[in-house]
Structures are given as structure tokens and as C-alpha cells.
């Protein structure tokens, strides 16, 4: 697996912050429930993203050696008034500037604490890119707007990272639902139908008792999920239903449903 360049992640964070900000100022109902994160309203989702960006910016900018409490993060509260789209968008944009400035200044190899034990700024550049890619889709769905395609290199890396996260959770948080992702001898194939062959946007995921394994490539599996890469990513992340237009499930659908039920951040 080859990660994207550090600057590519930084550029994508800028792009995705802009996309999310456009949703905020689109006239969408900020009090609407986010269907894919039903504990949040759209405004609460945006505040979550902005806080995560500022928190990460502080961790990277200070080269933190340990976790930083959120209440120490400058500006984490966001706008005092709720329902103010302009103020929320401005705060979100500033949050993006905080994290991207810290990441660019640090470079990928600078030391910075992380929950995953990969204590580098590069870890955070990748994590925040995909955090906002997925939550940006959540926001679009809450606003009733059409999903926008994610750049192919970013979407493929997001699938890789999600698989890495699920495997990490299985290893270090044995009491979580992800530990139940076990089906020895069974496998899942993801197949993007709209990408060039050189991107190799196909995955084979196996579910042995000791935890998932995965690799890129075209291989037969117990079940396959096929479709445009953005849609495959969002469905595999539980943001699009398996029956969404353009997606095709071939084989044992229940295995994919097991993934969607149990795959988790922990």
C-alpha cells in the first residue's frame, strides 16, 4: 500500500472543507437530523468536524506527546449562536486553515501523538482527509443534496484506511462489535467500475477468526460489491444502501450486511 503525498492530503482537506462549507450555506436546515449519524443534527455534525480539525491542528502544531483534552483547543466551541449558517461556515473555514497550516508546516514525518500509535503528522493528514470526506457525505445526505464524486486517488485511499482502522479496532479493542467480523473461509470483493486499471481500485477482504486481512486486486470472493468508486466507498462505510442505483451485489449479501453491522471505529 502506498500512501498519498502529504501535500495531496493537505490540498484535499482544503477542498473538502470548502465543499462542506457550501452545504452549510446552501439554505439547508441546520437543525435537520443527519440520517447516517442520527444522534446529530446537521449543525452538530459540522461542529464535530470543525472541532476535530482544530484538535488535530493543536496536536500537530505543538508536536504533542500525549492526547490533548478538547477543552484546551482554542476556538473549539464554535459560534455562540445556533442556526447562524454564515458564522458556522466562517468558523469551519478557519478550522480548516488551522489544521492545514499546522500540517504543511510540520511535514509528514514530524512527531505528533495519535490514538493509533502512528505518531506522525502524516497520520493526521490522512485521517483528517477521510474524516471530512465521509462526514461531508453525511452532511450532503442530511441536506437532501446529491453526493459529489470523490477524487479517485482519495476515495481508494479512504477504502484502504477504513480497512486499516477496522483491523486496528479488532486488535486493540476486543470488546467491540468489530471483533464479531469473523467468517473463516469467506471473503468480500470490492470492485470500482469507473477507474483506470493502474489505480487498482479493487480489494479482497478475508474474515478469519484472528481478524480481517486485505489486499488490493481482482479475485473471486464470497460476495462482491461493484459500482462507481465513490459509491462503493460510501456503501462500504454505511453511507449508501447496498441497493443504491449503480451498485451491484453478487453472491452472499448477508456477508456484506455483516460488515455493515459490525465494522466500526470502536
Automatic annotation (TrEMBL):
The keyword Lipid biosynthesis does not apply. Residues 153-257 form the MDMPI C-terminal domain. Residues 12-139 form the Mycothiol-dependent maleylpyruvate isomerase metal-binding domain. One of its GO terms (cellular component) is plasma membrane. GO terms for molecular function: isomerase activity; metal ion binding. Keywords: Isomerase, Pyruvate. It holds the Pfam family MDMPI_C. It comes from the Bacteria. This is Maleylpyruvate isomerase family mycothiol-dependent enzyme. It comes from Streptomyces coelicoflavus.
Amino acid at each position: 500500500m502506498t500512501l498519498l503525498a502529504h501535500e495531496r492530503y493537505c490540498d484535499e482537506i482544503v477542498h473538502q472543507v470548502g465543499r462542506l462549507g457550501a452545504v452549510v450555506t446552501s439554505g439547508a436546515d441546520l437543525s435537520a437530523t443527519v440520517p447516517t449519524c442520527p444522534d446529530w443534527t446537521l449543525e452538530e455534525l459540522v461542529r464535530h468536524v470543525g472541532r476535530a480539525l482544530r484538535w488535530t491542528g493543536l496536536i500537530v502544531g505543538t508536536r504533542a506527546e500525549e492526547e490533548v483534552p478538547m477543552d484546551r483547543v482554542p476556538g473549539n466551541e464554535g459560534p455562540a449562536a445556533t442556526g447562524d449558517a454564515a458564522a458556522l461556515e466562517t468558523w469551519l473555514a478557519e478550522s480548516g486553515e488551522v489544521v492545514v497550516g499546522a500540517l504543511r508546516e510540520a511535514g509528514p514525518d514530524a512527531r505528533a501523538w495519535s490514538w493509533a500509535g502512528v505518531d506522525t503528522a502524516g497520520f493526521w493528514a490522512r485521517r483528517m482527509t477521510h474524516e471530512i470526506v465521509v462526514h461531508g457525505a453525511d452532511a450532503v445526505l442530511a441536506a437532501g443534496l446529491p453526493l459529489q464524486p470523490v477524487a479517485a486517488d482519495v476515495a481508494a485511499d479512504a477504502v484502504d484506511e477504513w480497512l486499516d482502522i477496522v483491523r486496528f479496532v479488532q486488535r486493540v479493542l476486543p470488546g467491540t462489535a468489530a471483533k464479531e467480523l469473523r467468517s473463516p473461509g469467506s471473503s468480500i470483493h470490492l470492485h470500482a467500475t469507473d477507474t483506470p486499471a493502474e489505480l487498482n481500485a479493487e480489494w479482497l477482504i478475508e474474515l478469519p477468526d484472528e481478524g480481517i486481512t486485505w489486499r488490493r486486486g481482482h479475485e473471486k470472493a464470497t460476495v462482491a460489491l461493484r459500482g462507481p468508486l465513490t459509491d462503493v466507498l460510501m456503501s462500504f462505510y454505511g453511507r449508501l444502501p447496498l441497493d443504491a442505483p449503480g451498485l451491484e451485489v453478487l453472491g452472499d449479501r448477508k456477508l456484506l450486511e455483516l460488515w455493515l453491522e459490525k465494522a466500526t471505529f470502536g
